[in-house]
Amino acid sequence: VTVLGTPAEEDGGGKIDLLNEGGFDTMDVVFMAHPLQDDAPYLPLVAEHDVTIKYHGKASHASAYPWEGINALDAAVLCYNNLSALRQQMKPDWRVHGIIKHGGVKPNIIPAYTELEYYLRTPSRAELSVLKEKAERCFRSAAVATGCEVEVEYAKNAFDNILRNRTLEDLYEINGKSLGMEFTTDEEVLKNASGSTDFGNVTFVVPGIHPYFYIGSKALNHTEEYTVASGDDKAQFFTLRTAKALAMTALDVLLRPELLQKVKQEFTEAKLKEEQNAKQPAKQC
Fold first, then answer.
1. CATH of domain 28-45+163-279
2. Domain 48-154 falls in which CATH fold?
3. N or C: which end of the chain has fewer CB within 10 A?
């Protein structure tokens, strides 16, 4: 049994680096859990890739001789609007969201440099390449329209979707219920494909589960209220309970070889299905 620290999920994908360096090579199954507003053995976490878009123009006085400038802010705004228009033709479960990180220096100087950061998300890693191709046309057409140069820089690691293992999920849920967990039946929660994690990449190499657990608060993740709730004393009870459920699931796998075989068989079949889907021609929106 290995307890493995996996830092930098949200900025770089630390588990992917560990994966590439052989950190999971000797493992048969891998478990982790993530806090939320409810207990859930599985939520449909999606594939994701970060991208930074940089536009390079030419500075000039915005009032005296604007015709001498090449406006990088215009390129950034066009990029933003291009992506907003693209949403009309995107699949309902695709997501593109971002910010303008740098928009210029002074109002009387035509911006020579602007920078945007976007997250691109799709339910599967196969669909992600299709969305990236469409988004790139938005990035580059804005440069053509304004006369700017453009750099498109993707993050080193792209996050894969979670590859489900229902055998492990069922085991975890049985163990959790024996400890008093009340798993959500809210379809809006269970079908909300929104978040992403580098654990998805791990599940394409080793069978695994990524359940969510209640910490005693209905505050939403990534808010100040949730930060406070996660540090509250009562959150520790729920966290330890989740750790016990994971440990009990690990014992099930360790002590019952037929279960491990079933887990591995399901993993092989799920991975094969994903690979077959990836080879199919993408349907145009």
1. 3.40.630.10
2. Alpha-Beta Plaits (3.30.70)
3. N
